Amino acid sequence: MTRLSWFNVVSLTLGFAFLYLPMVILIIFSFNESKLVTVWAGFSTKWYGELLQNEAFLDAAWVTLRVAVFSSTIATVLGTMAAYVLVRGGRFFGRTLFSGMIYAPLVMPEVITGLSLLLLFIGIGLDRGIFTIVLAHTTFSMCYVSVVVSSRLVTFDRSLEEAALDLGCAPAEAFRLVTLPIIAPAVISGWLLAFTLSLDDLVIASFTSGPSSTTLPIKIFSSVRLGVSPEINALSTLMIAVVAVGVIIASLATKRAALQRRREEQLATQT
Amino acid sequence: MDASAFAPWEDPQAQPLIRFKNVTKSFGTFTAIDDLSLDIFEKEFFALLGPSGCGKTTMMRMLAGFETPTSGVIELAGQDIAPVPPNQRAVNMMFQSYALFPHLSIWDNIAFGLKRDKMPKLDLQERVEAMLKLTRLEQFARRKPHQISGGQRQRVALARSLAKAPKLLLLDEPLGALDKKLRQDTQFELMDIQETTGTTFVIVTHDQEEAMTVASRVAVMDHGRIIQADTPDRIYESPNSVYVADFIGDVNIIQGQANPGEGDGYRLFWTEGQPPLIANSTKSFSAGQTCHLAIRPEKVTISAERPEDAANAVRGKVLDIAYLGNLSTYHVELPNGLVIKAQTANTRRISRRSFTWEDPVWLSWTATAGVLLAN
Amino acid sequence: MRRFFLIAVPYAWLLVLFLIPFVIVLKISLSDTELAIPPYTPTLDLSQGWAGIREFFAGLDLENFVWLTEDDLYWKAYLSSLWIATCSTILTLLIGFPIAYGMARSPEQWRATLMMLVILPFWTSFLIRVYAWMGILSQEGFLNQFLLWIGIIDSPLTILNTNTAVYIGIVYTYLPFMILPIYAALDRLDGSLIEAAEDLGCSRLMAFWLVTLPLSRPGIIAGCFLVFIPALGEFVIPSLLGGSGTLMIGKVLWEEFFSNRDWPVASAVAVVLLLILVIPIVLFQRNQQKQQEADQ
Question: What is the pTM of this model?
Answer without folding.
Answer: 0.85
